[in-house]
Specification:
Length: 151
C-alpha cells in the first residue's frame, strides 16, 4: 500500500497488519496464482470446468484455513515470542494450507461439479470479494473477537 497508494491498491493489498488484511492477501494471492495456473496449463487441462471449480473452491476457503491454523497455533502456544518466530509460523501456515489444498484440488478437479456446487462456490467467492473490498475502506461495526457494543 505504501508503494502504490490509491483505491485499487487498497482493495488488493494489506492496509494494516491486522489478521483480516492478511486473510485478504491470502485470498487475492491464491486467486492470482490460480488464474495464472489456469492460463499456463490451459492446453493441458482435461476438464477446464472441473479444474476452474477446484481452484475457485480453494480460493474461497484459503482464508479460513489460514485463520484456523493461525488461531489454532495461538490457542496451543499463546503469543509469539518474537518477530522471527511469527514470520516462521506464518510460512508454516502457508505450507500447511498448500498441503491441504493440493490434494483437495486434485480430488475436486476429477469430478464434474453440480450446478448447485458451482453456484455455492461462486457465491462464496463473490461474498469474499465484497467483504475484502468493503473492509478495505472501513472496519466493520464489531470485531470478530469482541462483544458487540451495548451487549
Amino acid at each position: 500500500m505504501d508503494w502504490f497508494p490509491g483505491t485499487i491498491s487498497r482493495i488488493f493489498s494489506g492496509i494494516d497488519e491486522s489478521v483480516f488484511q492478511h486473510l485478504k492477501l491470502g485470498f487475492w494471492a491464491y486467486a492470482l496464482a490460480s488464474i495464472g495456473e489456469i492460463l499456463i496449463r490451459r492446453r493441458t487441462i482435461g476438464d477446464k470446468g472441473a479444474f476452474a471449480f477446484s481452484r475457485a473452491l480453494s480460493v474461497a476457503i484459503v482464508p479460513w484455513l489460514i485463520f484456523l491454523f493461525w488461531y489454532g497455533i495461538a490457542a496451543v502456544f499463546g503469543p509469539m515470542p518474537n518477530d522471527t518466530v511469527e514470520v516462521l509460523t506464518a510460512i508454516a501456515v502457508i505450507i500447511a494450507c498448500g498441503a491441504i489444498l493440493g490434494p483437495l484440488e486434485a480430488l475436486t478437479q476429477r469430478v464434474r461439479p453440480w450446478l448447485s456446487a458451482w453456484v455455492s462456490v461462486i457465491a462464496l467467492v463473490l461474498v469474499s470479494i465484497l467483504v475484502y473490498t468493503a473492509f478495505s475502506f472501513g472496519r466493520p461495526w464489531v470485531d470478530l473477537f469482541q462483544q458487540p457494543p451495548g451487549r
